[in-house]
Amino acid sequence: MAEKEVSSVLQKYKKKLDKELGQEFTIPNKPIVSREYLQFKKEYMPGHLNWYEKACNYCEKVFKIAPDKKKAAELQRYIDVAHLDITPTGAVSFAYLVPLAIAFFGSLIGYMIPAFFGQPTLFFVFFSIIVGLVLIAPFSKMPEFLANSWRMKASNQMVLSIFYVVTYMRHTSNIENAIDFAAEHLAPPLALDFKKILWDVETERFESVNESLDYYLETWREWNVEFIEAMHLVEGSLYESSEDRRLGSLDKALSVILDETYEKMLHYAHNLKSPITMLHMMGVILPILGLVILPLVVSFLGNVKWYHIATLYDVVLPIMVFYMGKVILSKRPSGYGDSDVSELNPELKKYKKIIVNFGKQEVLINPINICVLVWLVLFLIGLSPVIMHGMNPRFDVPLGGGFNLLGYRCPQHNPECDITQQIGPFGIGASILSLFIPLSFGISIGLYFKLKSKNIIKIREKTKKLEDEFASGLFQLGNRLGDGLPVEIAFGKVADIMEGTISGSFFSLVSTNIRKLGMGVKQAIYDKKIGALIYFPSSVIESSMKVLIESAKKGPRVASQALINVARYIKEIHKVNERLKDLMGDIIGSMKAQVSFLSPVISGIVIGITSMITTILGNLSQQLSNITAEAGEAAAGVGGAGILGLFGDGIPTYFFQIIVGIYVVELSYILTILANGIENGEDKLSQEYALGVNMRKSVLLYAVVSVVVMLIFNLIAGQIMTSIAVG
């Protein structure tokens, strides 16, 4: 009956609209889309996701490949989590068309380029086809990977999100305002999710915030049940009959997510040892030990070329290690993790550049300009042996002990070759100069990340130190308010008590703004020019002060209790974070040792051994050629020619070292990202700072070890060859 009444009313007003507008009025079926949400999404969505969206939508237009209903529903769930503007059909079309395009164009280019230089090979054709076919599987799971990446970034902020919601709900029991408060103080991506909850209500997709929130929470049921439980406790507090029960429900919400987070991270740490050991063996130890055999393989098997080794070590192995690492990271539960403070305060973005002061004027230099220059200089030094030989094929410098700078020589099949047909460089000097090529990549990349992150990381470390102290400062401020002091006077009292600490500096600055500049409490904290938060950019401090200002409207007693509870929450979160770091300490320490010491040292020793083997085999083949030439074919017989045929030209240490050096740089980069991901989750700032440190240290250690071992082993090789010649 009610439905008929509603329908008749709608028809009545529809006819009225038709009459007034002079045309038939239709109610649009398309959902209303909030422009504010789209603008917010555009600002905070990573650039690579936009490219992926465009590629999927384009592939869907070119050739539609629709998944079955079960697969489509699964893909749609991942698409919703990652906020992607694509369809399941677009994702599947991309997963097949792009790998097939890679296989086709890769085969074409892989055959044409070698053929252009007179050395056609089918190796790159087969390699491109295999790569294209293999890529179908990971590309099909791309929405899942992106959803997991989004989940990991968001899960780092979940403890903090419950903290913000509970903190607000303690003094004002309004779930909509609490979610808005959390969205305002969280960094993306969880801020985007929380804003989407509110916008879905504003655009009438859902009738209430509770309905929108429940729909959103279901997307986390597979990964983060404790977050759902905590939010349901927060929702339940709205219906409690007494104030004590309401506050108890809120306290329980925070303790649930803290306890469950610690328990899940404990299981993750225990289960992580086996995958990390496998990754270490398959991606680090076995490939590096395999390098010892490669010089012999290349010397005795003439069909093995340098590009075979380069493809295996510089393309296939790094991708395999990276993929294994991503799988390990995708299983990381929600925990702790810091955000980039420059995202919270855009004014700090300038500190990601090099600041040069000319008087009162600041000049900002992009770090990439300096790093490209460093890379170019070091790279040209590394190429200098090839450049010198190209400019003057007769150029060489004897270094003593039978060693040369360049060391070009004739190939085995043409011992009487023209000087322009010589191969190399085999010289020890060229091998040492080749180290500048991996140095150019490692140092320039490391320098870029260091210059980009060092200023911001200092600000964040200072902020973190303040946050660690801030709980006790809030506790004292709450006590002063509980004594009946006005907020303006309480700041000055706490500043005197905590003099000499970073927290004391914050309270002192607020007090100075109030007393000397006549500002109100809110202006003294939040003023865009001289407010205290400009010098202490922290979302925790900002939210705590907002709680203070909001609760102070209800009286000093309410404000006092609110601040004391905030202080207690901060202490509890800090305690759980420290326990989590202890859990991961052994694994993180082991991975950091691999990056900074084991991998570069083992690789450097392998290069020294390779240099010695290449030198000995090269000299032996030359001596056998000389013996065969002196004795004549009749005297040498079949034996001399047969032994000589065992030795190929081999790969010069110059090129072999470049392949291994680039592998060390790639391995340092991948393992640093993996170690940071396990320790800090999706914390880009910590990742960039760690890359700035590890890339430079590991490649420098590798270069030093390689030079020392090459010199020692080549001296040994020289003595061995001298004794053979004398004998």
Series of H and E elements: HHHHHHHHHHHHHHHEEHEEHHHHHHHHHH
Low-confidence stretches: 24-33, 633-642
Straight-line distance between termini: 114 Å
Helicity range: over 70%
The 3D shape can be described as globular
By DSSP, the count of extended strands is 4
> Number of DSSP helices?
26
State the major sheet.
Answer: 2 strands, antiparallel
Q: Hey, roughly how much beta strand do the residues contain? A: under 5%
Would you tell me the overall average pLDDT?
Answer: 79
Output the strand order for the largest sheet: 1-2
State the secondary-structure class.
Answer: mainly alpha
Multimeric status of the protein: single chain
> What is the CA-atom radius of gyration, in angstroms?
33 Å
Describe the structure.
The chain is mostly helical. Among the domains are: 1-30; 40-140, no CATH class; 270-458 and 573-726, no CATH class. The protein contains 26 helices and four strands. The longest helix is centred in the last third of the chain and has 91 residues, at 556-646. Residues 24-33 and 633-642 have low confidence and may be disordered.
